[in-house]
Amino acid sequence: MLSKFSLASRRMNQNHPALFSSALRNASTLIIAEPAGENEVAASTLATITAAQKLHSGPITLLTNKALDASSLPSSVSKVIHTDQPLEYHALAESIANSVKKAQDAHKFTHILAPASKFGSNVLPRAAAVLDCSPITDVVEVLSEDTFVRPIYAGNALAKVQATQETKVLSMRATAFEKADADGSPNVENEALSDVEQQSLTDFVSANVSKSDRPDLSSASVVISGGRGMKNGENFAMLETLADKLGGAVGASRAAVDAGFVPNDLQVGQTGKVVAPELYIAVGISGAIQHLSGMKDSKTIVAINNDPEAPIMQVADYALNQDLFKAIPELTEKV
After folding, report:
1. How crowded is residue 200: how many other Cβ atoms within 10 Å of its Cβ?
2. Is 291 annotated as a binding residue?
3. Is the per-residue pLDDT at 280 higher than 90?
4. Is residue 286 annotated as involved in ligand binding?
5. Residue 185 and residue 69: Cα distance in Å, rounded?
6. 271 among the known binding-site residues?
7. Which of 38, 53, 159, 180 has the fewest CB atoms within 10 Å distance of its CB?
8. What are the chain's domains?
9. Tens digits of residue pLDDT in 70-128
10. Is 228 annotated as a binding residue?
């Protein structure tokens, strides 16, 4: 005679076989690490490691293009799987997806994570397709091993979603999680990944990487963004001077990018970069919902605008209703 527990287990297995199967496996996580400098771990990857710790207490493994020294890793990382491939290999999402498949076949991870950055948004869908999984993107909160919270409707609402498949494939919004401390992982193991399938419909041509003394926009503690109110690209020099004094990065609204004032890699918003600095200064930005969704998690928001009814003025912690061409030089002088 079957017990109530046996009957319940049987029903669970019949209704959600993947969920039941994953429960029998020891929880483990593979994080697709965003490329960074020599022997460095990107800030977005450190935040994703924190998210992984909230999933379970099982081992955390990083997938990288090179071996990493234990001193650069958080203590929660137990293994680094590296491809030992040149930049042109790691620059192609198809190649990384093949590496993920190879690592998954060998280790059977229960969770595969990537930062919800441009890098992660490029790689994760391909990796999920190779693994025949449905990804859950832009996770901002972990409720359990299989239940997560993600924003919808440009951040105006939050949806609670549950993954029932055996392997959970997720991208984590870096600004929603604290960066894990790179305090050193004393027992980290480096494992080389070999014989990865190289088939790809895309060929690497070249990489032109711009160099800047300013911090990366996605991880800067201070961000100063300009909008259409800047009037032209030359006026962004004012923001650059102030940013240099504050040790911050320069961003822009979509309107400023579409107007050709600055390149699109400076765009902050739903279709640009999502930032959550300690201080966000919005200059000449009206505050369209697409922009607000990309910076609303900033700790302190300062808005400088000559329109007191602009939406950005309603969400700002400090709002200065003044001509930006007068306010910015005065602020720069006094910093």
Report:
1. 14
2. yes
3. yes
4. yes
5. 9
6. yes
7. 38
8. 15-192 (3.40.50.620), 222-334 (3.40.50.1220)
9. 788 898 999 999 886 665 556 788 888 989 999 999 999 999 999 998 899 999 999 99
10. yes
Is 32 assigned a ligand-binding role in the annotation?
no
Does 267 belong to an annotated binding site? yes
- Residue 314 marked in a binding site: no
The residue written with tokens 């600004």 in the block is 175
Q: Is 305 annotated as a binding residue?
A: yes
From CA 97, how far away is CA 135, in angstroms rounded?
13
pTM over 0.85: no
Is 2 a residue whose pLDDT tops 50?
A: no
- Would you call 145 helix, strand, or coil by DSSP? coil
Burial category of 201 from C-beta neighbours within 10 Å (exposed 0-12, middle 13-18, buried 19 and up): exposed
pLDDT at 70: 78
In the Cβ-directed half-sphere of 272, how many Cα atoms lie within 13 Å? 27
The reply, when asked if residue 198 is annotated as ligand binding, is no
Helix (H, G, I), strand (E, B) or coil at 101: helix
- For 258, residues 6+ apart whose C-beta sits below 8 A from its C-beta are none
Task: State how far the Cα of 8 lies from the Cα of 332, in Å rounded to an integer.
Answer: 67
| Mean pLDDT in residue range 216-242 | 95
Residue 289 marked as a ligand binder: yes
Average pLDDT, the chain: 87
Share of the chain above pLDDT 90, in %: 63
Is 294 annotated among the ligand-binding residues?
no
Q: What angle do CA 25, 28, 34 make, to 5 degrees?
A: 150
pLDDT in tens, 325-334: 999 999 999 9
Would you say 269 is a known binding-site residue?
yes
